[in-house]
Amino acid sequence: MNQIGSRFRPALGGLASWLVLAVLALLYATGSSSRDQLVTVMLINAVIVVGIQIYTGNTGIVSFGHVSLAGIAAYLSALLATPSAVKMSIIPHAPFGLAHVEMPPVLGILLAVVITTAIAAVLGLAINRVSGLTASIVTLAMLFVVNAVLTNWKDLTGGAEAFYGIPVVTTRWWVLAALLAAVLAARYFWASRVGLRARAGRDDELAAASMGVRVVRARYFSWVVSAVFAALGGALLGHLLGAIQPGTFYLSLNFLTLAMLVLGGMNSITGALLGTVVVTVGSELARWLGDGPRLLGVDLPDLPGLSLLFQGAVILIVMLLKPEGIMGDRELDHLWRRRGRPVSEPAEAPALPGAEPAEAQSAVAPGATVPSAAQPGRPLLAVSSVSMHFAGLRAVDGVSLEVHPGQIVGLIGPNGAGKTTLLNVISGVYSPTGGKVTLGEEEISSLSATRIAWRGVARTFQNIHLFSGLSVRENIEVGAATAAAHRPEVHRAADELLELSGLGEVAERKASTLPYGLQRQVEMARAVALGPQVLLLDEPAAGMNEAESEALIGAIRAIRDREGCAVLLIDHDLHFVLNLCERIYVLDAGRIIAAGTPDEIQKEACVIEAYLGTKAGGASGQVQVEAVV
């Protein structure tokens, strides 16, 4: 019971404020039928806009298709609830015997929402397999197709003419209940693990997949949930107006709802509501001015289309001056909670996960024996004759290496040697051209990055891949959500890692606002949150000074000991690699040219040649390699 309460509490947080605003709006509307109609339409638009926000805000895909879902629901509800006598005059040859169907409007609305959601669920299977601009174009095509069907299927819809006689049953209180349900669902979805995963995919699909997120599935769920409220808004609008036509749910309404969402902020439920109010009031004022009223004794000229001009100007100005909208990604209840709470800044750079202070660590000289938790026997990770070709380029050419349980293995080589490409193959970003990758006893070469992450392979990236729109805590929770079965476990795991890494003071800050070094630490903490068997680190010491590199050595060993995982890392800092790794592989031109302990690697002539571009002469190989550090 407590778990259920904890899941609903974030969703309930902002409802009180919106209830107050809605009641005030309704009270304001009393006493004038035209004003009452305006406010009711505004609240219906808010239901549709919040529905769009559930999808667009969590996935980053601007949808032009939700208005068409509203149109489908409006026509379905009209077909089910309009009196048969009226339908016989509009659509006497309606298929499926719909001309003779007549049910209570409430039942018709509910059934229309269910059927429309089912249609959206089928369409979403295709729409959500693409992303970004491509997905937006697909939803735009959906808008055109649905409008064409509504216009041309005359036996079902009556064509371009108005479908009239729809029972006018929508009341202010019905619409208010629908809006509260939409806000509740939007907040609950935002607070859910599916919502978190959808936003992770929104910010960085590659990193999300590498954290075990099924991006397409999360996107699909947000589409289906959002469709419910687009459909509900459309059905309520039909039963408010009493007559609809295909143009009611076409470009004008689509442009209007998008203007509302863009103005308020696509990533904010509060923004969706605020944008609806501002655009409605502004459009109504522009319409009034466009009708040529008498103002201060002066008859103003008629300005047809001024309302649309206002909406276009709003979008243009907001996109230029404040692209994230008025609210950005903030919510009203969040602002209330943060009022008076100072933003904490870390006094010093937080420690890495499990790291001890630099002065408490004893540096290990290059070539010295490093304690290993590795066990003899079958390797945990085995790369066997792996090749990765891009057209004529052999980025990786027949590479074989092994990583045993608890072992820290280094992979070094000059720029362009194929190191990151090999990590991409191991982690499932690429499928190898040849060879195989085995984790334990299972071959994982053909698996996706998501499925490989499920099996316990976590990674960081050469170029930092954080979920820029999420907080530090949320970044870590994305990894923890893959490893943990229940939400409380996710929170506990995140809290523990935040404490161990010293990132607690910046936990609620956006990851994108942190300096480079802290972003590296967040990325590593997120990978550790996955609870990996194998941790792949791509240049973890990049940009660090000597003291920070020494701290990182202690951190990686602590992670290995705490998680019981093996580590395979790439880095150009030879001092760092020689001090940390128990075994090192040297890659050059896509091939392994040397392998051995740090002491052995320092003496390899081919390693010296690969790094210095010339054969060793005069001095010992070890001295020349150290000179590169």
Number of individual domains: 3
What would you call the quaternary organization?
A: single chain
How many DSSP H or I helices?
26
Q: What structural class is derived from the secondary structure elements?
A: alpha/beta
Low confidence ranges: 1-14, 336-350, 354-375, 616-621, 623-629
Principal-axis shape equals elongated
Please state how the strands of the largest beta sheet are arranged side by side.
8-9-10-5-11-12
Helix content: 55-70%
* Radius of gyration (Å): 30 Å
Major sheet characteristics: 6 strands, mixed
Quote the beta fraction: 5-15%
What does the secondary structure layout of this molecule look like, with pairings?
Layout lengths: L1 H11 L2 H15 L3 H27 L6 H16 L2 H7 L14 H23 L4 H21 L1 H4 L14 H20 L1 H11 L1 H6 L4 H27 L9 H14 L4 H22 L3 E2 L2 E2 L6 H16 L10 H7 L42 E10 L2 E11 L4 E5 L6 H8 L7 E6 L2 E2 L5 H6 L2 E3 L12 H12 L3 H15 L14 H14 L4 E5 L7 H18 L2 E5 L3 H7 L2 E6 L2 E6 L1 H5 L2 H8 L8 H8 L1
Parallel strand pairs: 5-10, 5-11, 8-9, 9-10
Antiparallel strand pairs: 1-2, 3-4, 3-6, 6-7, 11-12
